[in-house]
Fold this protein.
Amino acid sequence: MKRKRVSDFSFLFLFFLISLIMPMYRLSAKALIYNEEHKFLLIKEAKGIRDFPGGGIEYGENPQETIQRELSEELGIATNIQVSEEITKFVTYYDEKKEVGIWLIFYETKIPDDTEIKIGDAECVEYGYFSIEEAKKLDLHPNAQHFL
């Protein structure tokens, strides 16, 4: 028996219908990096908001590889990165209608205390270490707000 091929239009129409009832999700991995004072690292994005370093998981990557890549891109750290087991994961949304979600996976990540950090990504304009109390006073990305 010959199988009927689904046309591109049919596939796109089906995808559109599914998107009406199910939100879209992006997968992202974030690094929780502490310094010797037990403060954690936040980056400041070009838009002025702060977030944990990390980003979207690309095709073929696992979350640990994503963190390695993102730390290299955002902070110029390419060696001696130790990504441990995941700490937590949760879903948050980009918009109030909850149409576009982000599935976040946080990993405790260690870098040597003497690691030189170089801002290396156009998205990241500065970084700093903060306590929870200090961070809550900052303009935080919804991801970071949810985590704290």
Remarks:
- Residues 8-21 form the longest helix (14 residues).
- Confidence is low (pLDDT under 50) at residues 1-7.
- The two ends are 57 Å apart (CA to CA).
